[in-house]
Amino acid sequence: MTTIGKHAVVLGASMGGLLAARALADFFDTVTLVERDVLPDGPVQRRGVPQGRHAHGLLSGGLQALAELFPGLPEELAADGATVLDGANLSLISLTLSGHTLNLNGQPSRPIESYLASRPFLEAHVRDRVRAIGNVRFLDGHDAVELLMDDTRRVTSVLVADRDGGAGQAISADLIVDAMGRAGRTPAFLESAGFGRPPEHRIAVQVAYSSQLLRFGDDVPRDRLTLVGTVPERPCGGSLFAYEDDTWLLTTAGMTGREPPTDLAGMIAFVEDLFPAETVAALRSAEPLGSPATFRYPASVRRRYERLTRFPDGLLVFGDAICSFNPVYGQGMSVAALEALALRDCLARGGDDLGRRFLRAAAGCVNTAWQMACGADLAMPQIPGPRPMSVRLSNWYTERVLTAAEDDPVVTEAFFRVMNLVDPPSRLMHPSIVRRVAAGASRRHRTRRPAAPAEAAVAPLG
Ligand SMILES: Cc1cc2nc3c(=O)[nH]c(=O)nc-3n(C[C@H](O)[C@H](O)[C@H](O)COP(=O)(O)OP(=O)(O)OC[C@H]3O[C@@H](n4cnc5c(N)ncnc54)[C@H](O)[C@@H]3O)c2cc1C
Q1: Alpha helices in 39-79, H assignment, sequence order
Q2: Is the Cα torsion angle 267, 269, 272, 277 positive or negative in sign?
Q3: Average pLDDT of the chain, as a whole number
Q4: Are residues 277 and 169 in the same domain?
Q5: Given this model, what pLDDT does residue 278 score?
Q6: Both 327 and 398 in a single domain?
């Protein structure tokens, strides 16, 4: 393995930071993870990751990337109690997207595995794996305060402050990675240092979540994963995930400013017309564990660092700090895992021009997920933003894919693989799929009028 430098520092030790550290550890003598929270042992909610109390799905593409970074991790998750959905049998998943309930009863031609576990459980397992890497050290309970540059305008160190009030210290490094999430301060730093701010794309989705952890008694829902996405005329949805230790998480969601209830009885009423009747019946007898949690997410944000004409040496940006996705599509952790693989590949080619090479590669990881999420968001007329012909066409076609997927398990499988970031969206344009989509759409046309293109919504994932 090529050694790129002596010391790399990663700011933020959530999923993004942990995965970046994993990639860096093979190329630097030492990697230091600086984290504001005091990190727990085991799966515990923490302040820096408030989203951990809400539905967190790991897409199959993300699971595959995690398994490449940490061989054996999926088996470990399963052994410790994560719910494993047999990749050859998707019938324990109930998915209703844009008003279409997908036919998941066929046997997929290739297995596509899904693991369900709470966010703290998954993060704790990844953290333990990173803790076990000999050259990674954690500096938790410390705030990253400021990036510092030398005379050549290379980023050379970061000022950190002990949260307990101890003295601040400057930590020098050959490379510093901002993995501090969507609130990361790199845009302001770049501007003050004369590099300019990265162009920023925002989609004001105004998502609100309320979630309740549950345990079922005798009446356990048949489906391990129930997910209902929004439609333009009803901008609300919900999910019920079977997690580890026989716990389940009910999340109710509103978009475009619609607020879900914040008490369990209200949440069950909210999903009454959305979820299968037997799931709603089971929810009525469920025991709540702790109190409901709420979260407001005003806008998806993508920062186009790769478009800056100049970027300082010694600095990278990673994970949500590059792109924070509308959470209803469940993409953030999976894209961070794909970015970690891209970082590993960039490092394997040496340290020259690393920043620009990695930011371009990361943009490639973000593109597909961002386009799918934005297309779906912009299918809601309430969400402001330009809708170029490409978005309208893609939404028009996706509506027909989902229509066909109600009956045709082959189309369902193709769509499921794309949505899970396993296959590229171009897979849905394969002539064999296009033929089935056309047949499915005309079958439906005989029984009901299809939605007008401008109103069609695409693929909320969870
Ligand atoms: C409500 C919600 C639901 C979501 N659901 C899903 C889902 O279903 N599936 C999915 O894949 N993704 C989901 N995501 C996204 C996912 O949580 C993130 O993509 C993932 O955590 C990776 O983000 P990150 O590590 O880059 O940033 P974050 O998770 O935001 O972590 C940033 C870290 O930096 C630390 N930090 C911040 N400032 C400082 C500082 N100054 N000094 C030191 N440390 C600092 C924080 O304490 C934190 O640990 C969801 C997000 C939200 C908001």
Answers
A1: 60-69, 73-79
A2: positive
A3: 94
A4: no
A5: 96
A6: no
Residue 414 CB partners (closer than 8 Å, separation 6+): 401, 423, 427, 428, 430, 433
CA nearest to 291, candidates 177, 211, 181, 350: 211
Ligand 1 centroid – CA 321 distance (Å): 9
55 touches ligand 1 (CB under 6 Å): yes
Q: Which tokens in the block code for residue 45?
A: 């909610």
- In contact, 267 and 250? CB cutoff 8 Å: yes
Query: What is the 373 CA–ligand 1 centroid distance (Å)?
Result: 18
From the CB of 332, is ligand 1 less than 6 Å away? Answer: yes
Model pLDDT, residue 458: 36
360-375 per-position pLDDT tens digit: 999 999 999 999 999 9
Q: Please tell me if the CB atom of residue 16 comes closer than 6 angstroms to any atom of ligand 1.
A: yes
> Ligand 1: does its nearest atom lie under 6 Å from the Cβ of 184?
no
Domain range enclosing 172: 5-70+120-196+301-373
- Residue 201: inside a domain: no
Q: Is the pLDDT of residue 460 over 60?
A: no
Q: Are residues 254 and 112 in the same domain?
A: no
Could you tell me the CATH number of the domain that includes residue 348? 3.50.50.60
Percent of the chain with pLDDT over 70: 96
Going by alpha carbons, the residue nearest to atom 47 of ligand 1 is 48
The verdict on the CB of residue 330 being under 6 Å from ligand 1 is yes
The atom of ligand 1 lying closest to the CA of 184 is 38
Helices and strands (DSSP H and E) totals, the chain: 12, 20
Query: Are residue 222 and residue 347 in the same domain, yes or no?
Result: no
Q: Are residues 106 and 158 in the same domain?
A: no
- State whether the beta carbon of 52 lies less than 6 angstroms from ligand 1: no
Q: Is 181 in the pocket of ligand 1 (CB under 6 A)?
A: yes
CATH code (residue 262): 3.30.70.2450
User: What is the tens place of the pLDDT at every residue in 250-277?
Assistant: 999 999 999 999 999 999 999 999 999 9
Percent above pLDDT 90 for the chain: 90
Residue 18's pLDDT is 98
Nearest-atom index, ligand 1, CA of 56? 8
Decide: helix, strand or coil at residue 186.
helix
| Residue 179 Cβ < 6 Å to ligand 1 | yes
For residue 454, pLDDT over 50 is answered with no
Kindly state the average pLDDT of the residues 293-316. 97
